[in-house]
Specification:
The chain is an alpha/beta fold. The protein is built from 15 helices and 13 strands. It is globular and about 65 Å long. The two termini are about 20 Å apart.
């Protein structure tokens, strides 16, 4: 009988966009590559999620949140809906998967174990720099005795977290991956263009798209044939800010292509494919899937030092090729401006290194490989329990 996993994603922003990120990617990868039966349970406050390709492998199940709860912001009644779902569904599964490190998740792990003592409780910490530092400071909190496995996306966090009594040595390394086989794209046939690309929730505090725009304004006379793609949903405040900021910079304004949000992976991958430089100006990240995707499609990466996982990834590659990628100080316009100038000036020199990066990503951050690693973690837990 196939093993069964239930992934719980009960947060308010649940939507189709999460299906191929880590939250939806884990059940999908285990089902597709390891033969598991998988369920993705989500908060339906934003409506019903439907994706025909995803549902070939994973059951999408709604945790029902009446609209009145959203309007009244009755958080504790919403918690009750989640508790009820876990209580009635846990006995059907071998693994239950939660996200983030807080008291309510600890309680749900306890509840799952009470309902099904044999179930493996797995918490993906999804930990940024700030989250990591917070956990180091707060080791006085009670142990997570009813959680079998934690994972983090950064190797350097594993040993330090395992030394904390509350985690009891149960933290493992598991990077986020991407699905190289979602679309049949031949990398050897992709023709690169002079495109600088960024992908994300444009205008949010986290993504810090303003930093990229300010840096481009500084060098608009040096961009020549280069154009800039801004891909992703855009906040209204950022639209207004961008229009006002570019009033006196028509040359740059004419080089910017705003695509809006792109759900269709084939369309998104085509943009990655023809782009040459990828910029991620974020203030913080636990792991940016977009960086893995961009590197797979042979983009030269320029990222801020907002994420230890990025530093780790690019340092691994620098051992093979010193020219691969640039990490710049967050919030530093001068540093990002200089990095972009370097990128566009050396793009031909960097092309061979980007091919190395593509191969590296495919071998190390492909969900097919990561799913089997996670399955091995589960098997190790089972072997110790029985």
């Amino acid at each position: 009988m196939p093993k069964r996993i239930l992934t719980m994603f009960w947060y308010d922003d649940a939507g189709e966009v999460h299906l191929y990120k880590d939250v939806g990617g884990i059940p999908y990868a285990l089902a597709k590559y390891c033969g598991w039966q998988a369920t993705f349970a989500y908060n339906d406050a934003n409506g019903v999620i439907h994706n025909e390709d995803y549902e070939k492998y994973v059951k999408l199940d709604r945790i029902r949140f009446p609209k009145i709860l959203e309007k009244l912001k009755l958080r504790y009644i919403k918690y009750f809906q989640v508790i009820k779902y876990v209580y009635f569904n846990t006995p059907k599964y071998d693994v239950i998967n939660f996200y983030h490190c807080h008291k309510f998740i600890k309680f749900l792990c306890w509840l799952a174990k009470k309902r099904n003592p044999n179930i493996i409780t797995y918490v993906k910490l999804d930990m940024s720099k700030n989250g990591f530092e917070k956990e180091l400071k707060n080791n006085c909190k009670r142990r997570w005795d009813f959680t079998d496995l934690f994972t983090v996306e950064t190797n350097k966090y594993v040993d330090e977290l395992n030394e904390l009594s509350k985690f009891s040595g149960k933290v493992k390394y598991l990077p986020n991956g991407f699905f190289a086989d979602l679309e049949d794209i031949d990398l050897s046939k992709i023709k690169k263009e002079k495109i600088i690309l960024t992908v994300g929730r444009l205008g949010t505090y986290q993504k810090n798209t303003e930093l990229l725009i300010e840096s481009l304004i500084e060098i608009e006379d040096k961009l020549n044939e280069w154009i800039v793609y801004l891909v992703g949903p855009m906040t209204e405040d950022f639209k207004i800010w961008l229009n006002n900021r570019l009033v006196d910079h028509s040359k740059l304004k004419n080089k910017i292509v705003i695509t809006g949000n792109i759900i269709d992976k084939k369309e998104l991958y085509q943009i990655y494919g023809k782009s040459s430089i990828f910029v991620l100006p974020s203030r913080y990240e636990s792991w940016g899937l977009v960086l893995s995707e961009a590197m797979y499609f042979a983009n030269y990466p320029i990222v801020t030092n907002c994420c230890d996982a990025f530093n780790e990834m690019l340092c691994m590659l620098c051992n093979k090729n010193e020219k691969y990628g640039l990490i710049v100080e967050s919030e530093n316009v001068e540093a990002l401006k200089s990095a972009i100038i370097y990128g566009i000036s050396h793009i031909n020199d960097n092309f061979n290194s980007t091919k190395i990066g593509s191969d590296f990503i495919n071998k190390n951050f492909n969900w097919k490989i990561i799913a089997h690693r996670l399955e091995n973690y589960f098997d190790d837990i089972l072997s110790k329990n029985f």
